[in-house]
Amino acid sequence: MKLIKPLAAVAAVVGLAVLPVTAGAAPPKTLWVAPAPVVVASVPRAVTPAVTNAGYATAPYHTIQSAIAAAPAGATINICAGTYVEQLTITQSVSLVAVGAVTVALPASPANSETACDNAVGNGPYEPDQDEVVLCGSASVNITGVTVDAAWAAGTCNDSLYGILVAGGATLNFTDSSVTAAGAVPLNGCQGGVGIQIGMAWTTPVEVGHATLLNDKISGYQKNGITVDGTGASANIDDTTVTGIGATTLIAQNGIQISNGALGTIYGSTITGNECDDTGGGCGPSVLDGVPAVGVLFYGPAAGSSVTASAINANDAGVYNAEASTVKVPRSPVVSVNLDTLTNNRYEGIELDQGWASMTGDSINGGEAGIAVLQYDTQSYGANGTATLDTIRNESIAAVDVASDQAAGDYHGTLSVELSDLRGNAARVLDNSLNYTVFQLLDL
Fold first, then answer.
1. Is the model's pLDDT at 163 over the cut of 90?
2. pLDDT in tens, 67-83
3. Which of 147, 214, 213, 208 lies closest to 182 in space, CA to CA?
4. Can you tell me the distance from the alpha carbon of 124 to that of 116, in angstroms, rounded to the nearest whole number?
5. Where are the domains of the chain?
6. Comparing 152-156, 288-292, 378-382, which segment has the lowest mean pLDDT?
7. Beta carbons of 218 and 239 less than 8 angstroms apart
8. What pLDDT shows up at residue 24?
9. DSSP β-ladder status, 398-404 and 194-198
10. DSSP label at 14?
11. Are 402 and 430 in contact (CB under 8 A)?
């Protein structure tokens, strides 16, 4: 008796396609976006997979958000060159990859962002969030080669404006990309406008975000270029350039801020152009009373935060360290500043407030003080530091300046300066405190 072969076997013999048993095909893992229909003949060979065959000669999506909505978790969305005027909400793991020059630009009338992260308890006092791109939820999102242009209209004053917001446990991998605006254009004195905001400490519970930034350029921000904020939040910032507007009477910008329990490591990056001339608002050279614009601001960071092998130039203060007032007095360095070049920061190369920082192998040149130490009566504990193998040159006040209000309640602190070169400054050490100690060991 002749046996009848199963359908699959017959198909294999005669070359027939086997139809899937389940109804409907799985969504594709690679999606393509173009700002307008793309004719096959006009697409370079390298990107011809952007279009389908069988007579359908266009990329199927014309907005990035529509592709995100259709993408399964883990999908790659290839974006053809062009400018996409839209706001993006991402809640699943996807990769956005630019094929050519791709810009995501803020609409003329931005909408409030309505994710659970934007509406978290505690966000209300900060006005509704408006984000160019928001990552919310336990997603890992890769963005490569994309420019984010989050320019709000002139005169916009909102404390919650973000080029990119990373929250809800999300992770951003931002590579070979840019943020060219974040906040009102031209900027004003309002305190909103952050290029990339990773985590938010003011919500209940804290909104956590994580990020790896590699070979990026951040500019055009109103308040901060990059902020990593809140316990559990973290960021690795490598080979990234953060550029402020330069001297301005409008606002004290910060290039990178690591704050409120967040962990941040910065390596091989350039931070420049954060300078404030608003003397009426407190900006200026006064070490104790001034509100400087800062290249790298550590404000209550997690232990292990650092800036290494970076160029921190032409800010008011290159690096500022102030640790949290609600924790135990640190017994070892919390922040490290290593192998950095700090050149022509107008007032201080490194400024030490309460806490403990280590400085090793840094080159500090130009300004008023290479290392400034603050001592005042509202600190929770003293400022401590170790400076080893550092070179400080051409400071108009001193290589090390201990500035104190000389109040009875001032805390004692220490700075150990070892194997460092303090030559070529107006003074090596200028100490006007009552009870601070600077140890100089084997200095040149």
1. yes
2. 999 999 999 999 999 99
3. 147
4. 13
5. 87-441
6. 288-292
7. no
8. 56
9. unpaired
10. H
11. yes
Side-chain half-sphere exposure of 299, counting CA atoms within 13 A? 14
C-alpha torsion 153→159→165→166, nearest 10: 180
**DSSP-based three-state secondary structure for 21:** coil
Residues pairing with 306 in the sheet: 265, 336
d(CA 317, CA 330): 23
Is the CB of residue 367 less than 8 Å from the CB of residue 351? no
Of 340, 249, 245, 355, the residue nearest 296 (C-alpha): 340
Sign (positive or negative) of CA dihedral 228, 229, 231, 233? negative
pTM, to two decimals: 0.90
Cα 439–chain centre separation: 35
C-alpha triplet 310, 311, 317: angle, nearest 5°: 110
Please check whether residue 40 is in contact with residue 32, taking contact to mean a CB–CB distance below 8 angstroms.
no
Residue 311, both tokens: 């160029």
Mean pLDDT computed over 269-279: 96
Structure tokens at 229: 């904020």
The secondary structure of residue 268, as a DSSP letter, is: S
382-404 pLDDT tens trace = 999 999 999 999 999 999 999 99
DSSP-derived 3-state class of residue 95 = strand
Rounded Cα distance, 412 and 401, in Å: 15
* Cβ(425)–Cβ(399) below 8 Å: yes
Q: Does 354 score more than 80 pLDDT?
A: yes
Phi and psi at 13, nearest 5°, equal -70, -45
HSE-CB for 138 with a 13 A CA cutoff? 0
What is the Cα–Cα distance from 15 to 9, expressed in whole angstroms?
10
Q: How far is CA 210 from CA 196, 255, 261, in A?
A: 11, 18, 13
How is the beta sheet containing 317-322 ordered, strand by strand? 88-90, 130-136, 161-167, 194-198, 224-229, 254-259, 294-299, 317-322, 348-352, 369-375, 398-404, 429-431
d(C-alpha 109, C-alpha 87), whole Å: 11
Tell me which architecture the domain covering 87-441 has in CATH.
3 Solenoid (2.160)
pLDDT band for position 20 (50/70/90)? very low
Write the CB contacts of 430 (distance below 8 Å, at least 6 apart in sequence): 369, 397, 398, 400, 401, 402
Q: Could you tell me where the DSSP H helices lie in 137-205? A: none
For residue 136, the cross-strand partners are 167
Rounded mean pLDDT, 121-136: 92
